[in-house]
Amino acid sequence: MMRRGCLLGIIAAIVLALGSLTWLLGGWYMGGPLQKDAAFIVPDGASLSSVAGKLEREGVISSASGFRLRARIFGAGGSIKAGEFSLPAGASPSKVLGILQGGEAVRRFVTVPEGMPSILVYERLNGQTLLEGAISPPPEGSVLPDTYDFERGESRQALVLRMQTAMQRTLAELWEKRSPNTVVKTPQEAVILASIVEKETGKPSERKLVAGLYSNRVRQGIMLQADPTIIYPITKGKPLGRRIKQSEIQAINEYNTYSMVGLPKGPITNPGRASIEAVLNPAKTEALYMVADGTGGHAFASTLAEHNANVEKWYTLRKARGDF
């Protein structure tokens, strides 16, 4: 009888152990209660215990205490990462921990197009509700137009600093490759002239030719007479929304290149890499004048007579279109 009792005790212990193991394994590897794919945010510095409680409250797992226990037994040795993570519907606790320890945080993107002035960069970043913190409009010409990724909760200032670092690196790289034909004497002058080129043409194929034209004017001491430099002091780079007034053309300030020789005080927008490169490696041309040609590009001329003929063609085209 004693032997039989011992055997039954051993069997009971085995069954109990198997049951406990099944409970542990099932609660770790079987699907969880999450009904649909969801985003889950791990705050910076959060502990396993606090994350477990948050997972339970948000319906990702059934039991915070069970999750903590199984994580200590079965979990990998890595720490939980801060950030926003995408959790699939029905994810098991094991899968959830794996995502929080080794998964890629969800990234979001914001684009600064070439030629976007800083006031609009400021407004765009303030419109990103997943960013945090207050900023001021960055100095004009200090951010590099590009697409940038960010995480939920990242500070706007941190994102601006990354944009500015990208501009500094790009400018330093391109400055080292500048042509002897460039007229700019400093990287800052390159940004100023590139900002004018950026605003004066939307055709990539024209950038170097436009840069060559303005380089010729700087070299010969001729006013640049770039319309966007009239508008910038009025709107800080936003669209004017009307025709330029004669009084604005004649206005004397530190930007208007119709009333001054040389470059304006500072950039009038944030130029892209291609426009900076064009200014540092301009086309060799004799062009001194340009006017729109009706195709989105410009007609270039090296003499005033040729330019006046191009202007007459442009006015005739605009009149035929009913512009005035």
Sum up the structure in keywords.
elongated, two-stranded antiparallel ribbon, mainly alpha, 6 strands, single chain
SSE string, helices as H and strands as E: HEHHEHEHEHHHHHHEEH
Number of strand elements: 6
What is the 3D form? elongated
Tell me roughly what share of residues is in helical segments. 40-55%
- The total count of helices amounts to 12
Task: State the oligomer.
Answer: single chain
In spatial order, strands of the major sheet run 1-2
Beta-strand percentage range: 5-15%
Supply the helix-strand structural class. mainly alpha
Structural Rg:
32 Å
What low-confidence regions span 5 or more consecutive residues with pLDDT below 50? 15-19
How far the N terminus sits from the C terminus, by CA atoms, comes to 114 Å
What's the mean pLDDT score?
A: 88
The major pleated sheet works out as:
2 strands, antiparallel
